[in-house]
Amino acid sequence: MRKKRPVAAKLEDVIIRRKATSVEIEYKDPEVASVTLELGRPVGEMSDEDILDLFNKSLRAQRRMRVAYDHRAIEIPEGRPQIKFDEGCRKWVPRGDVLRCIVEDWPPGGTTIIIDEHELSLEEFGGMLNAYAGWGMRIVFVPDDELGRMPDIVMCEAEEEERRECRDQKGEEMGDSVIEMPRLAEPNIDAVLEGFIVEQRERLKPATLRKYEYIVDLMRIHMNGYGSNHLSKREKRMYEALQNSRKMEEVDFCSVFGPEKIVDNLDEFLGYFIVRKVNASQEDLRSAGTVTKKLSRWLFDEGHISEESSREGFVLASEATRVLPRAEKAAQLIFEYVDNLPIDPDDLEDEDYIEYDHFVVDMVEPKRIWLRGCFMDDTVETLGPIPLPMEVTELLKEGWTMGCALGRLRGKWIIVESGNIYPL
Asked: For the segment 47-98, what is each residue's pLDDT rounded down to a tens digit?
């Protein structure tokens, strides 16, 4: 049986086994696949928490890529060979992503798949599918003289006679050139978030409830402004069609899409929006993690999202609760430190000044850090050591992103302007 896709996890959910430059992450749930994470550097000095943090971030990055990926299947034109025989692995392999084939019920008691002029047994056909191991597959049956045409597909769970009626009715409705306007999600994000707040009113004190309402309102603002960035091309076309429709008086992201999009947007909400756009206090940042953690679990309990999505949101929100206030405190301390430095960036020579940008904290040691950045000539360089107070370096973590400008004074780099720190 195929195992489940790996999901964001907590330390108590996994077993971490270390090798020289890689780790194996085994889930205690036997139904979830294990993962080998190649780090490319010695892992002896990394804690299990650091390893799992890096692993969870890579899973979130993969999820964002899957959401943004708009798959276009390649179909080989008629008259050109769809498959070829690979001498290396001694089997047939597809040349594209679509196969036009005919199913025959011979030899007696068996099945033959005909692709172009080639007759493949089920064993040969199955061996050919190994080229796409790990992918999904849809099979569409069509008349043998319509292999080159994609039919209209109708969702209809019914008996043969009813399916035939469903096909006929759909054909009359659509014709050949009519494209249906996509439907709004039911329930949509607005309705689900309102349901979450209504339930919290029954259990929370007024002061705590106001924090929940504030964070949920910020989530709505974020998704309505930035949610479309995480849509596939097909979803973006649908969203634009709805926005351009004269029938729609007002269309925003939270009124169009369903609750499954909430977790897709949590990473940017917690890791960027509430830090950069809201400039939230440490208390608000802590509340953001608490509320989104509660929301992630509630969405699953109410049947709105999968257990995998709920766990991913819960782990991200738990991490946000822990690191966002810490990062905000570090940013405030750096600002105060830089503000008291006896240096004016305007007095620096061009070669001794690096304009405000976002740098990755590459290494942290007591009272000093190293920052990695991509510069004007597209080269990646690590600068340091850069001095900072001990109370700051005790808060910073490797892998965080820091907004700042750098100046070189007597051959050594220092921070001369500071901004936000992004830990997620």
From this structure: 888 888 888 888 877 777 766 666 778 888 888 899 999 888 888 999 888 9
Q: How many CB atoms lie within 10 A of CB 233?
A: 12
Half-sphere exposure of 89 toward its Cβ, with a 13 Å CA cutoff?
12
Tokens at 81, concatenated: 């060979």
Distance CA 127, CA 92 (A): 8
Cα–Cα distance for residue pair 240/245, rounded to 1 Å: 9
Tell me the pLDDT tens digit for each residue of 155-180.
665 555 555 555 555 444 444 333 34
Fill in the amino acid letter for 202: E
Which residue blocks in 107-188 are alpha helix, DSSP H?
122-129, 160-174
Count CB-CB contacts under 10 A for residue 192.
Answer: 21
Whether omega for the bond prior to residue 107 falls within 30 degrees of 0, making it cis, is yes
Strand-pairing partners, residue 374, are 380
For 124-213, strand residue ranges (E) read none
- Dig out the tokens for 144 from the structure: 């043998």
As a whole number of angstroms, the distance between CA 103 and CA 115 comes to 9
Angle at 92 between CA 86 and CA 94, to 5 degrees: 100
Taking the C-alpha atoms of residue 242 and residue 253, their distance in angstroms, rounded to an integer, is: 10
Whether the Cβ atoms of residue 26 and residue 48 lie closer than 8 Å to each other? no
CA–CA gap between residue 288 and residue 221 (Å, rounded) = 14
**b/e per residue 299-311 (b: at least 16 CB within 10 A):** bbeeebbeebbbb
Cα distance between residue 56 and residue 51, in whole Å: 9
Q: By the 8 A CB rule, do 278 and 284 touch? A: yes
Q: Distance between CA atoms of 368 and 385, rounded to whole angstroms? A: 6
How many of the other CB atoms lie within 10 Å of CB of 54?
A: 15
Q: Per-residue pLDDT tens for 128-144?
A: 888 887 788 888 888 88
Q: How far apart are CA 241 and CA 181, in angstroms?
A: 8
Contact, 378 vs 353, CB < 8 A? no
DSSP annotation of 188 reads -
Tokens for 231, please give them: 């849509």
| CA distance readout (Å), 229 to 109, 243, 268 | 53, 15, 10
Whether residue 279 contacts residue 239, with contact meaning beta carbons closer than 8 Å, is answered with: no
Q: What is the DSSP string of 56-87?
A: HHHHHHHHHHHHH-------PPTTS-SEEEET
Q: Rounded distance, CA 6 to CA 312, Å?
A: 10
